[in-house]
Model the fold of this input.
Amino acid sequence: MKEKLIRFMQGRYGVDSFSKFMLISGLVVVMLSSFLSGNILGVICYVAGWFLVIFCYFRMFSRNITKRYAENQTFLAKTYKIRSFFQGQKNVWKLRKTHHIYKCPNCKQKIRIPRGKGKIEIRCPKCSTTFIKKS
Ligand SMILES: [Zn+2]
Done:
């Protein structure tokens, strides 16, 4: 079974971030459509959601690897800002355990201070303003 699948996927594009995104958003839209049943909007959501899911599979099994690769690159470039924002939020969340993040009162530069050092004087690396905070 696994071998068959491998042989089937040979020369085909496979899964990438763009496909994953389409599959997940497609399924979400289909789920949303069930809340809108009996409504024309529900029908549109339902069709659009399944269209996304089918398109995802179409890309996975596509033999036009160059084109699919280019699509994924475009997708990644277009979502770069959003993805790096979420990545940043994740990092901030992780850092909260070990560090405080203060903003310089003068230039708003973010400064990372390790926790548990008592009251300390912080010097902004950007504008050299000093301020006192509890770490
Ligand atoms: Zn500053």
